[in-house]
Amino acid sequence: MDPLDFTGRAVVVTGGTRGIGAAVARAFQAAGAHVLTCARTTPSSGLPGLPAFFPADVRDPVQAAALIAEAVRRFGRLDVLINNAGGAPTASADTASPRLHAKVIELNLIAPLHVAQAANAVMREQETGGVILMIGSVSGTRPSPGTAAYGAAKAGLHHLATSLAAEWAPKVRVNSLVVGPVDSGAGPDQEAVARTVPMGRAATAGEVAGACLLLASPLAGYITGASLAVHGGGEWPAYLADLRDTAYRAEK
Question: Which Pfam families match (predicted)?
């Protein structure tokens, strides 16, 4: 039996209409799962190739619960939740408004808790339990200048995963992914970003999705409360800049 075969399983991916979320949704769908994605609004371009969609602002606990209820209504069960919705604009901590700080923390920390609570209520009643994955960030493991509230929220998310894993075991496994730079085709120069990563490039969204498949599968059946680093080896420390340059020249 293929441990990465999710045929008949039900999966919810928050923020699943673009970027990492869309890649995760497509990966589970390709593995045979029934997948429901959500976002605050339906993209105007539609959702070509994506699974079922349900509009929900997961910062609202009522809408978060409605999302999980919709998955159960459609599929009769819930096996995997990927808490992917998140993000933040760049803003200096000394000038950003209190409202911005609150909204960033609400989206990246409180919202995943809302959805996880609703998912756990379903999973704990199932014989096979379930899996909850938090899409974290390296911003939550090192200084995050320009996105201080985001980094603090992601640090909290990693800790939240360990706490929920302890509370909800053995029926529900909870893990987080510590994701580094991902090539989105937009934003900062990807070559410049990649030079800070030992692997020499940013991750693809598909590689993050592959890590989600692994952690949600029976191959990770005894893994809970863990953080899986999906960051290409981390970041070169500044004091090793000369060694980094030598290593990159050797690869060329």
Answer: adh_short_C2
User: Both tokens of residue 73?
Assistant: 């209504």
Beta bridge pairs of residue 198: none
**222 in catalytic set:** no
pLDDT band at 189 (very low <50, low <70, confident <90, very high): low
Order of strands, sheet of 130-137, starting from the edge strand that comes earlier in the sequence: 52-55, 34-39, 10-14, 80-83, 130-137, 172-179, 227-230
Distances (CA, A) of 45 to 7, 9, 21, 41, 109: 29, 28, 17, 11, 29
Given the residues 150, 222, 239, 248, select the one marked as catalytic: 150
DSSP H/E element including 114: helix 111-123
Instruction: Confirm if 82 and 115 have CB atoms less than 8 A apart.
Output: no
Percent of the chain at pLDDT exceeding 70: 90
**What angle in degrees, to the nearest 10, is found between the helix axes of 148-168 and 111-123?**
20
- Rounded CA separation 215/234 (Å): 20
Scanning the structure block, which residue is given the tokens 């800070």? 196
